[in-house]
């Protein structure tokens, strides 16, 4: 980081959905929070020269390039923000860390445990030289999620017995939705499991402070062939006419049970076929003294049941998470003036900037993200093995 002008010059690779969400956060973070350093949107990188020039103008970046290696090599770039599909996370992060840059890498960290291990080791080496790194599990920074963790840490739930987590979307229920990069294993690493399952794995480990110690899983690909997209794009791709088709090489849905190392039992479901559920990350945690329940589609609310209250007052109450006492919210609006999805990214950049500027380790670290990658890998291996699966015969054969 420049020691003269107290700026963090950011170079971001990628300009699609996550690039837009990160840009919004870089634009707002220093205007909302009083921080020890100021992010400067110096350089955006993308493969298409026309599109990246348009993105620079639209998203607010000073310069643009089509060469991420140039971005990483520039001495005036302090932070490399990786918003690309998973097949390039390792290559870009390793180069950036070797160049002594601070790195923020989108989730999941990588497309394999081997890559995640290599990135974690490189982050540890670069740390000695002052570089800091973080993985972008942004939902940790939803105030209601941070409040959930606070309630658990304060013992308000007692002993944690159950974790019930699902992340439900439905954007590919239509079999005519084209074969975008998220549906191709060589690019995305896995399907719903790594894309949205990674979020509930990280979030539940973060909130409970417990690690997933073992899993038993099933996965399914409901639609096995899809039309090739007219052009590669994100969640709203188009198909031109009678396009050729290609194979879906990832899971459409993954379901697994788990034991946490603190003794809790857990169930996880990540699917893109929950018709009608658009972005429903739902977590319920049951403890000996109470429970909490969260739904991302109602992100300003948290349901809390305090089992220590008199019987006549039992049941879930709704906490409206908009008070200045709640995590992150002192910088925003008065109580009841709710925030949105994009605020979690501004909170993420707030914590990243503060950590980098003060030299502490941002969280989640690459090691935390490696822990998620190990769970993803265990789920895939369990589903392939099918070993814990007991068939049930039909009553009327
Ligand atoms: C698509 O499933 C997606 O954009 C994920 O990639 C993000 O991580 C999630 O936050 C929203 O949905």
Task: Summarize this entry quickly.
Residues 8-126 form the Gfo/Idh/MocA-like oxidoreductase N-terminal domain. With 397 residues, this protein is of the alpha/beta class.
Care to describe what's here?
The strands form 3 sheets. The chain has an 8-stranded mixed β-sheet with strand order 8-11-12-7-13-14-15-16. It has a 6-stranded parallel β-sheet with strand order 3-2-1-4-5-6, with helices on both faces. It has 2 domains: 132 residues, NAD(P)-binding Rossmann-like Domain (Rossmann fold), CATH 3.40.50.720; 231 residues, Dihydrodipicolinate Reductase, domain 2 (2-Layer Sandwich). The chain is built from 10 helices and 16 strands. α2 links the parallel β2 and β3. The model has no long low-confidence stretch (mean pLDDT 95). The chain has 397 residues and is α/β, with parallel strands linked by helices. Helices cover 32% and strands 24% of the residues. α4 packs parallel to α5. The site of alpha-L-sorbopyranose has 6 residues, from α8.
User: What's the CATH topology name of the largest domain?
Assistant: Dihydrodipicolinate Reductase, domain 2
**Count of helical stretches:** 10
End-to-end gap: 70 Å
Largest sheet: 8 strands, mixed
On the 0 to 100 scale, the average pLDDT is 95
Number of strands: 16
Kindly report the oligomeric state of this protein.
Answer: single chain
Output the radius of gyration: 21 Å
**What is the helix fraction of residues, given as a range?**
25-40%
**In the CATH classification, which architecture of the largest domain applies?**
2-Layer Sandwich
Strand order of the largest sheet: 8-11-12-7-13-14-15-16
CATH class of the largest domain: Alpha Beta
- Unreliable stretches: none
Secondary-structure-based class equals: alpha/beta
Keywords: Oxidoreductase
GO molecular function: nucleotide binding; oxidoreductase activity
Domain Gfo/Idh/MocA-like oxidoreductase N-terminal: 8-126
Domain GFO/IDH/MocA-like oxidoreductase: 146-292
